[in-house]
Write a structure and sequence with these properties.
Length: 718
Amino acid sequence: MADTLLNGLNEEQIQAVTATEGYIRVIAGAGSGKTRALTHRFTYLVNELGIAASNILCVTFTNKAANEMKKRIRYMIGDNDTGFICTFHGFCVQVLKEEIHVLNYPKNFLIIDTEDVTAILHTIFEDMGLNSRNYTFSTITDMIAVRKEKEPYLAYILETNNDVLKEKFLTAESKEDAIFYRYLYEQKKCYALDFDDLINYVLYIFENHEEIKLKWQKKLEYVMVDEFQDVSPKQYMLSKLLSGYHHNLFIVGDPDQTIYSWRGANVEFILNFDKAFPTAKTIIMNKNYRSTPNIIQASNSLIEKNKRRIEKSLVPIKQADIPVIYNHMKTTQLEAEWIAAQIKKIQEGGISLKNIAILYRSHFVSRSFEEVFIKENIKYTIYSGIEFYKRKEIKDVLCYLRMILYSDDISFNRIVNIPKRNIGEKRMTFLKEYAGNHSCSLYQALQDNLEDNLFKKTNGKDFTALIEKYKQLYEEKKISEVLSDILNDSGYEALLRTDGEQERLDNLAELKQSIFDYENSAGEECTLADYLEKISLFTNLDQKENSDSVQMMTIHTAKGLEFPYVFVCGLNEGIFPSKHIDTSDKMEEERRLAYVAFTRAENTLFLSDAEGVNYDGSYRYPSRFIFNIEKTYINYMVELESRLASDARMYIQLNEQKMEQNSRCLAINDLVEHHVFGKGKILDINHDTSSYVIKFENMETTRNISFKIMLEYAGHEE
Ligand SMILES: Nc1ncnc2c1ncn2[C@@H]1O[C@H](COP(=O)(O)OP(=O)(O)OP(=O)(O)O)[C@@H](O)[C@H]1O
């Protein structure tokens, strides 16, 4: 039986599958069959060694990857119980559902996504009289994330009651403190956890409740983590902790594909795994099954230009002499037309459009292509834009469902006046004040004041009656029925019909269909709470694949995917690499991104760029990533004019020198500028925690700021 399972695997894959005990690191090059190794390993543990699936944790990068893996494993082990195959977030939610009661939180706590966070910030900004000239939501979200990473905020919010928390933000000395504590207050009020909290709460519970930690450690006899090159410090901590009893931790990743450093990923964890676990065994998988030889040679040639890496070269298994094509154009319009013409040629060869992908660095690049594709009648799907679950109508309706379960302020704020119930700004201000004074939710505030003159002429009563009605009956109905009924009873669907919002109605129909599918596939875990929890974890990376159309997406979205024909376009200085890249480290990450893009191609890789001027007035030279590839591996459709080529090389050389300067380590007494905290001076450097101790001009006390945060050098002062 083991033979059948191991059939079709190469030697390294067999090693990865059968080395089940201890700490194992697999450095797996692009297209070397990681997914195959992981699924077979899971199956081997279950079918050959008799390990229960429920004792195996297998962490993937996206929900989509988890679902894909579950499907394959289910097929191989012939059982529906696939244990814990999920993302870190998904796993944390499962732990919290079982354990969060020790923190006196309800089992059905609320998970809030980025849209909800923005909604909370809106309220805070409004109340504090702030606007985008003071701060942007994104800088504040970053500030909150950084503080949550660094400060023991959890101990603080758990031990502090709401009144004290309130006092804290009301009396805060700096605006940032006020916003931060107010945000924590708003969260605590409705037991809401944002994405960063999920892992922080789990770690907190494990650190403070030895018996719970031990329970999970014992349960998870085998821990596997995919895409380990992109784990954050907290994810690393969790992997280490969970495998702390059985000591079976299997990690797979490709350091050359680390593309999420900007989100906290740290490639050091995979690079130093053997130092952290001296007994660790390393397996290198470098046979590439995906791409034709020229694609591999070009990609190897590109990534070799990175200095900070483990040396490894992909070896192509496929045989075919298909060139990598590069074309340089005078305008983006011409670039798009050239790509459209290539697509038509591919199509004429009987290849369907879904086998073709257009990859780009940033969303804005897609516009010129779309225009040409529409003109040329080429069907395409863009994997971006506003994510399905964040579209207005979808979010509105989900907030109605959330009101039934949680009656939280975020949902209340969003839908109490949609459709119009005459509860406008004045009445909302009253409710907020009342809720603040009585330490209750806005919904409770409305319920308490329905008889007040201020609310007599509103439809507040209908609203609370509606929510109360569904609170009574939702458990007896299917989620799809609750949804249809509440859309009808609330007048929401009628509102869209009156406004002639066909696209929004179509989206609602799609939502109903997806709930219907969920009910048919979810088995026992099919309650409204389960459903809301599941979709709250959806991200842009989990979108549905579409019919026969060209697939257009950013390279980050394309991670882990493969397509027979790949176009990487907009390969220009200022676009890719992006003009925001200002240090050598970031440039190495940008090069890894190009490497991820190139290695998505199975059959043919097309590279292109177009001349022009960037927004900041800089010239769009052909990208250094083109020059990084040995010319023998690419077929230039036109030779670059020698003047253009030499100007481009000169520009790139100067730019690299500038980045080297920017990358120089900051020293004690250097003056710096932080994007949120402003001007400050470095007082100390803490290499243990990889951070600078900085005294900011606007703050009483010092802050430890991670090396990862970009600080502008602003001089030196002894
Ligand atoms: N032993 C093998 N024999 C033949 N084909 C294989 C083998 N292993 C993997 N493949 C094929 O190689 C391709 C790449 O595999 P997979 O998607 O698992 O790569 P990966 O390592 O996850 O890639 P990446 O990190 O670039 O996303 C797939 O089409 C897979 O079917």
